[in-house]
Amino acid sequence: MPISRIKSLRLSYPYYLTILLCIMFIYSSILSYYILTNDQSKCSNEKIPLISKKLLSTKRKLAVLVPYRERFEELLEFVPYMHRFLNRQMLSFDIIVLNQIDRYRFNRASLLNAGFTEIKSNYDYIAMHDVDLLPLNPNLSYEYPVQPVHIAAPSLHPRYHYEKFIGGILLINNKHFELVNGLSNRYWGWGLEDDEFYVRLKDARLNVTRPANISTGINDTFKHIHGKERKRDTVKCFNQREVTRRRDRQTGLRDVEYTVIDRRKLEIDGAPLLVINIKLKCNETATPWCNCTKKNDPSYS
Ligand SMILES: *[C@@H]1O[C@H](CO)[C@@H](O)[C@H](O)[C@H]1NC(C)=O
Ligand SMILES: *[C@@H]1O[C@H](CO)[C@@H](O)[C@H](O)[C@H]1NC(C)=O
Ligand SMILES: *[C@@H]1O[C@H](CO)[C@@H](O)[C@H](O)[C@H]1NC(C)=O
Ligand SMILES: *[C@@H]1O[C@H](CO)[C@@H](O)[C@H](O)[C@H]1NC(C)=O
Ligand SMILES: *[C@@H]1O[C@H](CO)[C@@H](O)[C@H](O)[C@H]1NC(C)=O
Ligand SMILES: *[C@@H]1O[C@H](CO)[C@@H](O)[C@H](O)[C@H]1NC(C)=O
């Protein structure tokens, strides 16, 4: 380095020091102003620390997983309603519709396994949620479930009142859903997959809790928007009846087979939702009842 340049550096040393001191002064002024105003707001408005504490405790992210096929009117009502309901609880959530687009019979359980696999890295817990059941009582909390929480409890559900009922709406954290290997993939057609899931939770010694201190009852806790004209697929063919009565120790989250065709972001009345279009695969040797037709099984009932 030429001598003249070193000289000029030396000369300007006090100049840099002054600038540095100025910056430090401005910085500390801003900092103390921030701390002071923050303290003032704490004194003048007690709600601010409460809200921020609430936000901190609900930082965990909820994926509302909705197994779905051809129920457009119900979806139109469900999404804006749930969006408002969960926003009031100040939760961090997304509504994700798992749309089954293959031609097999509806498989709620496999859709949940597939949906969970797709979204798990971005969320901490899921709500397994029927599209036709709207929570009316704002005290039904969708907060992070330390143990699985059955929101649609038998004492509150408009239709199902048996003690082991666990369908409708269930909150479970990712760790527990993985622990029980999700749901069985053998349930094509309507029903019973939730009863099998109950046994999975029980075998894993998870303690399902239900909403406490809810003042509403079976008539006014939920709104059931399932159209009576819509027939449920309760057909049984091949040996479905026999197999689906048993606990399934083989299939579940780890072996669900599907293809995601695409993901679409939509809005209904301003409420956002994600639709994942899913093609499930059926092993027709293991579960031939994924496709009940007279041609396949002339004896089906
Ligand atoms: C179901 O079975 C029928 C009759 O064998 C067949 O025509 C149809 O392609 C099958 N559907 C699927 C999705 O495999
Ligand atoms: C469930 O409850 C039982 C009895 O209260 C307790 O022993 C067990 O540890 C609980 N299970 C979990 C996973 O917390
Ligand atoms: C429910 O109410 C009872 C009595 O009012 C109270 O002791 C209990 O802590 C409440 N439970 C919850 C979970 O709020
Ligand atoms: C919700 O809980 C609060 C506090 O316990 C109670 O005052 C209110 O009546 C409850 N609301 C309903 C709809 O049950
Ligand atoms: C619910 O409604 C039905 C029909 O309106 C009525 O018969 C029943 O008593 C109600 N149950 C409760 C717990 O209010
Ligand atoms: C289908 O299921 C049968 C019987 O459970 C099994 O032997 C076979 O390996 C499965 N096929 C595939 C492609 O997974």
Automatic annotation (TrEMBL):
User: Which GO BP annotation is one of this protein's?
Assistant: carbohydrate metabolic process
Tell me which residues make up the Galactosyltransferase N-terminal domain.
58-142
Q: Does the keyword Transcription regulation apply?
A: no
Q: What EC number(s) does the entry state? A: 2.4.1.-
Give the superkingdom in one word: Eukaryota
Q: Identify the keywords attached in UniProt to this record, alphabetized.
A: Glycoprotein, Glycosyltransferase, Manganese, Membrane, Metal-binding, Signal-anchor, Transferase, Transmembrane, Transmembrane helix
What GO cellular component term, any one, is given? Golgi apparatus
Protein's name according to its UniProt entry: Beta-1,4-N-acetylgalactosaminyltransferase
Tell me the organism.
Phyllotreta striolata
